[in-house]
Amino acid sequence: MSRSICGAPLLFQPGTKWNYGISTDILGRVVEIASGQTFDEFLQKHFFAPLGMSDTGFYVPAEKAHRLADVYQTNGIFLTTSEPGKTSPFLKKPANFSGGGGLISTINDYSRFLQMIANGGNFQGKQYLKEETVKLMTTSQLPDEIGSISLGEQRHGTGFGLGFSVRGAPDKRWDKDSVVGEYGWGGMASTHYWISPKHKLVVVTMEQTLPYNWNLEHLLKPIIYQAIKE
Fold first, then answer.
1. 3-state SS of 10-40?
2. Domain harbouring 133, CATH code
């Protein structure tokens, strides 16, 4: 795939716009080449096993299949099962280990990973990433002239770091209850996570609803932030 991408034309001149593309997938392949390991082996050795993320991987093994949640389809009113856990494609080992998506996890596991990020790359006394690296990940790298990212709709006041969206300025037109400095992202089935350094807060929600929507995050934020005593 990486070789095929090399011949594809650019969507626009670098540094002039933002697009949610496959850059992280390409980086996953770079990790494989640099480490001499498949991407799943690298993540298991350097992150999942030492962080205690025992329920995270690119597929669900047979002995854990009964725990895999169904995915639901919504029309805004009713929910119907669109992908039963017992027949999910994630029960089989994939041919490609995507750097940009495809991991299966739990709230507990992912909270451990995010706490490591919130701690500047450190978790329970072990440094997994350099503090400088985490700073780059959680600081918007967009030029000022780009302004904010757009994915389906314009996310006013929101930039993008190395893997996280980053709230750079208050703007009531988008995610009005978020706070400056907050960073996070979401998953295809309406899962959400965010970290607020100001409040020393890590939030993970897992919903399993298609198509993707922001409802749960936008409902939870005002409740959570209003409950915190400054």
1. CCCCCCCCCCCCCHHHHHHHHHHHHHCCCHH
2. 3.40.710.10
